[in-house]
Amino acid sequence: TGPDTVSPTGQPTGADQARMAQSGAYLTNAQGTRLYDTDHSLKAGPRGPVLLQDHHLREKVMHFDHERIPERVVHARGSAAHGVFTSYGTAASVTKAAFLAEDVETPVFVRFSTVLGSRGSADTVRDTRGFATKFYTSEGVFDLVGNNIPVFFIQDAIKFPDVIHAGKPHPDREIPQAQSAHDTFWDFVTLHTEATHHTLWNMSDRGIPRSLRTMEGFGVHTFRLVNAAGETTLVKFHWKPKLGVHSLVWEEAQIINGVDPDFHRRDLADAIEAGAHPEWEFGIQTFPDTPDQTFEGIDLLDPTNIVPEELAPVQPIGKLVLDRNPSNFFAETEQVAFHVGHLVPGIDVTDDPLLAGRLFSYLDTQITRLGGPNFPQIPINRPHAPVNDMLRDSFHQTAVHRGVAPYRPNSLDGGCPFLAGADTGAYIETPVTVPESKKVREAPESFADHFSQPRRFWLSMSPVEREHIIGAYTFELGKCYEQAIKERGLQVLANIDPELCAQVAAGLGLPAPSATVPLADVEPSPALSQVGHTWPTD
Ligand code: HEM
User: Does residue 410 carry a catalytic annotation?
Assistant: First the structure.
């Protein structure tokens, strides 16, 4: 059903191949008519007025005028690469997903990003990094749209516009570009204390990665896997970099932002070109799919929670190698459209309320960003599996659909009846029981603890990592104009740890408040520290 000029693997064919590669023997206009000159407008004499009839001039300038599309509303700055995912088969007992069977190789496209800066912003700012992977599986596309931080700022997608409004540059002066050092961001995260955990990760070394090749990745939400017998398991997805986890120190990040704002982008592309192909191991933490969807007292539907690896080890299930740079940034890195709802049989979502909002948001934004609903036909987004849908027409439709009856069943085009109920390899939503309840606008009680997990993170840090966190909070809060925000920031820190609060307060020259909640009695999780972090299969 795709455009005739593109092969099933997304490659242009025939005359279009020459045009897209700009390798034809002569230049043509968009209609294929040969041109003899593209440097001079058509004029009434060499010094006379330009003639309105010059179609080549108008076509060339019109197209240029419309070259830009809107940047992503978040994660605008990104860099991407192609690669291969090879499955170990170790997840086959918990999922029927074909690409996770033993030794299956699946082409992938991975886009890394910062969250808040615009498309032209610098790479080594303090921010969360996106880690989005498109698996072109034999059963359709599976997208894992994750971050390099395993928790999120908010627990309910209805607050996403709010947290992003707070994090983007101030509406009056449009500064600052990065997440760092501005009042609205700190106003939000100190008023919405569910953001404490994510913010603490941002203020740690994780907020300024050394390289995109040395970042972990996390699916963040809990997902539900389904095996061939219909049994379900709750999981969290992890990417672990073969090179280990490494960060910059703040001073390095500052200098690099000035000297080479493309530092991460350049590093990724250069490494791939030089044959130093970055690798990650893909892993899952598994939890029994119990009716309460908790594990060791941790609510698995709360995206501000991790499950410490000491309680649920990450089990390796496959390997990702990035081995090819995009050949056209716009066609691939800009036009790729990820979506958490792009799932394959054997992988399902849970009722995490943040995930529910994402299922709506990505599709919606891409209609604007990519000019209508036909963006799945853009080569980078095309599945490597046959497509036989009943989606028709609209803007940028490039498929020439055949037949007369885009509905099922029909008696005219003669085919493809649904095999209802049978196991046809179709995607079937897991028939989980929805708890009987009344409609409410409220969070569950189990989402109310905002400080235990941040405290565990703080206690897990080495002395040098703690020093960096103290320095980061002191710098960031110190740059806020409003005294009340600094004070509220200190109150949040007091609820994490008195020493952390005291050190930052001393740096700000303000008194350290006492905690307003009892300090949680939690054990450190050594796996959270970057120091001594090793590749699991070394
Ligand atoms: C884009 C991750 C929460 C809306 C992205 C991207 C990533 C990401 C990696 C960039 C994709 C790319 O490279 O093209 C996450 C994670 C979240 C989260 C890990 C929480 C666990 C949300 C929520 C919403 C949202 C709650 C909205 C309700 C968007 C939008 C884009 C985006 C609109 C731009 C997509 C596009 O233009 O193609 N997100 N996000 N995200 N995200 Fe999220």
Answer: no
